[in-house]
Amino acid sequence: MCRLSVVLSAALLLVTACAGESEAPRPPAQAVGERYVNLGDSYASGTGVLPLQQDSPFLCFRSTRNYATLVAERTGRVLTDVSCARAATEHLTAGQFEGAPPQFDALTEDTELVTMMIGGNDNGAFGQSIGLCGAAAAATPPDSCADDISALRDKIATATAPALVTAVRQIRQRAPRASVLLIGYPWILPARTGCYPDVPVAARDVPSVHDLQRHLNAAIGRAAAAAPGVRYVDMAGVSDGHDSCRSEGTRWVEPARNRAASVSAVGGLHPNAAGQRAIAEQVLAALN
């Protein structure tokens, strides 16, 4: 995610939508005009998929084609999108940087739908896992990052999971009328075999990184189950076979290297346009 060190390109490449794409199912017509708030990190903001929302802080990298925008367009909901690249659960209640106030400030008693996709930046789950595994793979002789991944997995249990439960409770307090959807992350890597160096994780460590993501998604699912009126949108099952090691046109998440030409310089290890559409379809299905 955006915890990874990134050098911004001087020119960002424009995303073009594929012609002839089928639309996801449309929720009932009574959704038109409902107030909708999207919360979360770079996976929620659509980092890497251009063009950007004009009123978005540049460093939030909010895409005009992220899943929340697609859901709002297809249902007639009125969207307030405060998702932001590099956001962690702490940024739900504390400002991230100037121009990016606490995301929960967008919630009101009149909010009728909330989507949230967050947790991957907490305690360095995604960024550190790829960074540490990349360093291990490049070492001479090559090393394993399994112990590092185990430590990150423990942090999901001891810190990220309770932070998610608290966040859901606060959403319910601030937006008591809202339907709330917590969205899990699509697979970054397959279960067993990777694609080093396009994703810098050695083959021996791919199962550990995959398992780390499984633990994070499970924590998100448990947080949703712990509160009334909150549902979990599972992206793991539907994204199987669409990870970043698949061919262009099949993958929903871009690799760190050899990305598609339609993905901007910050889009590595993030959902591409097809991935954002896939998340939107699952959200829409959950709303039906």
Walkthrough of the structure:
It comes from Gordonia pseudamarae. Residues 39-278 form the SGNH hydrolase-type esterase domain. This is SGNH/GDSL hydrolase family protein. By secondary structure, this protein is an alpha/beta fold. 33% of the residues lie in helices and 8% in strands. It has a 5-stranded parallel sheet with strand order 2-1-3-4-5, with helices on both faces. Helix 3 runs antiparallel to helix 5. The model is unreliable at 2-22 (pLDDT under 50).
Question: TL;DR?
Answer:
By secondary structure, this protein is of the alpha/beta class. Helices cover 33% and strands 8% of the residues.
List the defining traits of the structure above.
SGNH_hydro; alpha/beta; 288 residues; 5 strands; single chain; 7 helices; Rossmann fold
